[in-house]
């Protein structure tokens, strides 16, 4: 366990997480929100992709684990880590439906932001979010992210083009929060 909050801990993702990750990547409730390709993958394909992700130098991948029952409930991570410019991008997916709406995603993001700004001493943390993912956008705003750009008609989903937003928070603007 690397980071611990009141409800969750973040631990490094391993190849042992492939079955969970496979189920989540193929869940059609989750995939449209986090996966730009929305392609079903076999367990073997997911294992191969996961091995590549875990071996990348400019990434950190974590499992969100619920503390009370020790159940993996989602994942988050950092990518495009640039130590020279002190910039990093992030992503999160809270995959188990019964854990949503309880502040778990918020707390996991807060733990990651503390790591990014206090430990890694990064200047800027950014993310991309599909414009129809209103719940996530509201959470990011509560965490201090601001919308700084819009990618017009960035994906085709459910028969129509949809925008994607770029949001960020700077180290100088970062204020630790309590999970809400």
Write up this protein:
The chain is α+β, with helices and mostly antiparallel strands and 180 residues long. It has helices at residues 18-25, 31-34, 43-55, 104-119, 134-142, and strands at 3-4, 8-12, 60-66, 72-82, 87-94, 124-130, 146-157, 160-170. The protein has an eight-stranded mixed sheet, with helices on both faces. The radius of gyration is 16 Å and the shape is globular. The relative contact order is 0.15.
What is the topological layout?
Elements: E1 3-4, E2 8-12, H1 18-25, H2 31-34, H3 43-55, E3 60-66, E4 72-82, E5 87-94, H4 104-119, E6 124-130, H5 134-142, E7 146-157, E8 160-170
Parallel strand pairs: 5-6
Antiparallel strand pairs: 1-2, 2-3, 3-4, 4-5, 6-8, 7-8
Helix pairs in contact: 1-3
A few lines on this structure:
Helix 1 crosses helix 3 (43-55). Helix content is 28%, strand content 35%. It contains five helices and eight strands, in the order E-E-H-H-H-E-E-E-H-E-H-E-E.
